[in-house]
Amino acid sequence: MQVPASFDYERARSVDEALELLRRHGEEARVVAGGHSLLPMMKLRLAGPEVLIDINDLTELDHIDLVGDELRVGALTRHRALLESESVGRYFPIVHDAERVIADPPVRNRGTIGGSLCQADPSEDLSAVCGALHARAVIRGAEGERVVSMADFHQGPYETAVGVGEMLVEVRIPVLPGAGSAYEKVERKAGDWAVAAAGVALTLREGRIADAGVGLAAVGAGALNLHAVQTLMNGSEPSEALYEEAGRVASANCSPVTDSRGSEDYKRHLAGELTRRALRRAVARAARSTAREA
Amino acid sequence: MTTVDEPAVAPEERPIGFGRMKRKEDPRFVRGKGRYVDDIKLPGMLHGAVLRSPFAHARIVSIDTSAAEAHPKVRAVVTGETLAGLGLAWMPTLSMDTQAVLATDKVRFQGQEVAFVVAEDHYAARDAIELIDVEYEPLDAVVNARHALAPEAPVVRDDLEGRTDNHIFDWEAGDADATEEVFARADVVVGQTMLYPRVHPAPLETCGAVASMDPVDGRLTLYSTTQAPHAHRTLYAMVAGLPEHKIRVVSPDIGGGFGNKVGIYPGYVCAIVGSILTGRPVKWMEDRSENLMSTSFARDYHMTGEIAATREGRILGVRVKVLADHGAFNSTAQPTKYPAGFFHIFTGSYDIEAAHCAVTGVYTNKAPGGVAYACSFRVTEAVYLIERMVDCLADELGADPAELRMLNLLRPEQFPYENKTGWTYDSGDYPACLRKALDIAGYEELRQEQREKRARGELMGIGLSFFTETVGAGPRKHMDILGLGMADGCELRVHPTGKAVVRLSVQTQGQGHETTFAQIVAEELGIPPEDIDVVHGDTDQTPFGLGTYGSRSTPVSGAAAAVVARKVRDKARIIAGAMLEVAPDDLEWTKGRWSVKGDPAVTRTIQEIALAAHGSLELPDGVEGHLEATTVYNPPNLTYPFGAYICVVDVDPGTGTVKVRRFVAVDDCGTRINPMIIEGQVHGGLADGVGMALMEIIGFDEDGNCLSGSFMDYLLPTALEVPAWELDHTVTPSPHHPIGAKGIGESATVGSPPAVVNAVLDAIGVRHADMPLTPSRVWQALDRGEVEAPQ
């Protein structure tokens, strides 16, 4: 059995207490929620925090609420809750697409959206999903809350905008009329990290694409919002020619590397292929929701 | 040669003898009450952990253990130097090589054992490992076997006197000249280079041991994850100079072996040394990464095959050159005479005029071991080679792979069949087996569907494999491991009340021995299986034998169990004669009782006979009381299970993703003892095959760093990657085995990988691509018509 080095353990009873503990212990402290990334890293002794601050009792962070024109998802919301949420499925089918292929049921029972985003693994699915949805992250610290875009939140592999003494408390996703979204992922086996994945979200306004968001996973940094593809799509009428071009641009605007999951050129190919597929499905879903809303 | 039908047994019917029954061992497993090595806790037990090399190849400049020794919970720190003082720094391998227990001069693969810490608990042992300061001088590593024999290649084994290269052995089988002759006159010759990549058995339970040396009476008790407790005991006696009668090796419940637990690992030896040094029991249990990175791998065979045929598709000859990567120490487990295992059964199931193979073994800076993993001593590689070559030939000729196989399969009247590399196949009706598989699959309809799909640009593939195994090693005159002959003992005792205990020399790791062997005895004696206790895995409790691997339990030990039961039955006849006051020759046996010929009402059950055998009944002169017997079974030949497998896949042309849609497996393992256990074994082996074909590989970077040290990187298939298996069988009993059984443990692992690979290549229209056929590699093969060998 792999065992971690020794560490202290604190169980926070409120967000304020968690923040106080984080402030007190500084850089040596890590928040643990689902623990499915942190604990294996500790067992492999790749991570060695001196203090773990357990936030699993903070039910105030476990919620999915529709507030005005946005969905507010607490950072402690489990993958399973997202997958079972009817409103998430209705407004953001991309989330259900992704959740179905994130790890396996035992992991989804424990793992949280906040943990996924804060781990900031370059192959992580929800970062690409939230990027495509133009979600915003609410970060709380002693000084209060600040709200940042996903592009600002995700600062690189394993790096986020969450500073020492701060924590991610909520994710806010805009609910837009006529929206459609989809997520496509290739993995070597069920539950594997993505070889590559693409998320697309958009709305249809009078037959033209608007609010386009395209986020890719596992194909290098800076792909959570592919501006070049989004610009191409916004204002365009959906067509196979557009999908082809979007795929081509996505493929050209990512920076995958060869590893045991696949070669660089294959991942670049997938970036295009999966963007096309996700786009196609997102448009079809948007057309359906437009029809339903009308 | 006849194919016999299995008698239908209703599932709810409890057989006395052969038939479908639930496993006797499962009540404890499904309740979580199995007792594995890691469940063993002895009073005062300490915990060991191994410090491993971060480099594939490096000279050890110095090792400073002072900080680890100063740790308050540490009781001992052992290094190669400590062991050298005891004469234990190196140990012999199962292939007559030597292997470092703890490195002294240099490290030769990433993950090699460098030091061993014994501490009060597992956490402290792990912490203390990080306090050991080792200074290394990194050296260039030999990673790819294809470069191992280059003149400039670094020498891995400079510890061996006079060694100036990485060559281990050359070995050949068959007739090179005769093969050359048939190749010269063949209409068609097809060549193909292929790699069977390095894979890992990856049992759920990793390897480990609890060593307890009693400082008073000098007795060593070793609980360990071993598939061969008796062989291990003898080797410990030979290596460590401990008297064999003072060593007890116990193999408790084992969570999967697949060959991974055949060898002796440095950790076991370290646990023993730890116990000797501290006077307390020491547990060492490796973690998942250690298991994947340092214990016996399998395969790593670089093969260049050639097949020669007539224009009509009659196969004339096959030849192959193999470069075998044995890692840093040659510790493969196989019969001494055969350094390439049974690879020379690569002529497969076909009537071939001539064949030849030449195998060269080399050292590399990779983990040692090899041969393990449900491969029947390299039959896996052999079957993969011939079944790929046949498909390459079909591709060249534009022939249907099923028709080409049918044309060349051995015919029933050719058995017993002497193949061209020295094997005598015992029995089989191959065409009937293949025909059955084709019928179940609906082969013609599948080809029709494939044609229609191709016209629409959809990729669907149908892959076949017909395999012949050679298992049940083996006849003593041909087969030994380190001089220990491969015969197996068995002891049977019937208690006064008619219950029985049978003691085996083989050890189950999940195969269901406690049920299968009870059924074998039940079939012979008519005692219900639930009344028969099967004892195994403890050298103090069982007769000598070489253990469970290479599908040898039923062919060898199963035969021993039947023979010993027949001895008891013969003795029961004499006792029944005394009871009934008739001559034993006047009695006839029906299952469970001896009766007077022509007067079946005058009868004694085996239970009545058992009681009489222990009672006051006067026995004939020279007949001892009680009802028991022992035997040692020396197999006259190996057994040859076979099967026909058909795999259907769909490939996504945009992503290269493979979906295994169907898998039809028709197996023939001779007499079927418990069909439910057979099916379980086949299910597992087929999943193994899908895993190897599509996702499994122990990969390395150019510096020799292992890239597959966790289940995030070493992928095992799950229920989501495999279809609902479609199983059937034929039955051609082995003529030389007492009950006609051939063994089934590895058939599916051996036979399935080429069926999956052939299906994928059939779908994408590419002649060859090496495993694992991950989406990336399939896409590259689709894109370019080929893909480079994996590393």
TrEMBL record, chain A:
Keywords: FAD, Flavoprotein, Oxidoreductase. SMART domains: CO_deh_flav_C (SM01092). Residues 2-178 form the FAD-binding PCMH-type domain. Gene3D superfamilies: 3.30.465.10, CO dehydrogenase flavoprotein, C-terminal domain (3.30.390.50), Uridine Diphospho-n-acetylenolpyruvylglucosamine Reductase, domain 2 (3.30.43.10). The keyword Heme does not apply. It holds the Pfam family CO_deh_flav_C. InterPro entries: CO_DH_flav_C, CO_DH_flav_C_dom_sf, Diverse_Substr_Oxidored, FAD-bd_PCMH, FAD-bd_PCMH-like_sf, FAD-bd_PCMH_sub1, FAD-bd_PCMH_sub2, Mopterin_DH_FAD-bd. The keyword Ion transport does not apply. PROSITE patterns: FAD_PCMH. GO terms for molecular function: FAD binding; oxidoreductase activity. This is Carbon monoxide dehydrogenase medium subunit. It comes from Streptomyces fructofermentans.
TrEMBL record, chain B:
Keywords: Molybdenum, Oxidoreductase. Residues 31-140 form the Aldehyde oxidase/xanthine dehydrogenase a/b hammerhead domain. InterPro entries: Ald_Oxase/Xan_DH_a/b, Ald_Oxase/Xan_DH_a/b_sf, Ald_Oxase/xanthine_DH-like, AldOxase/xan_DH_MoCoBD1, AldOxase/xan_DH_MoCoBD2, AldOxase/xan_DH_Mopterin-bd_sf, CO_Mo_DH_lsu. Its cofactor is Mo-molybdopterin cytosine dinucleotide. One of its GO terms (molecular function) is molybdenum ion binding. NCBIfam families: CO_dehy_Mo_lg (TIGR02416). This is Carbon-monoxide dehydrogenase large subunit. It comes from Streptomyces fructofermentans.
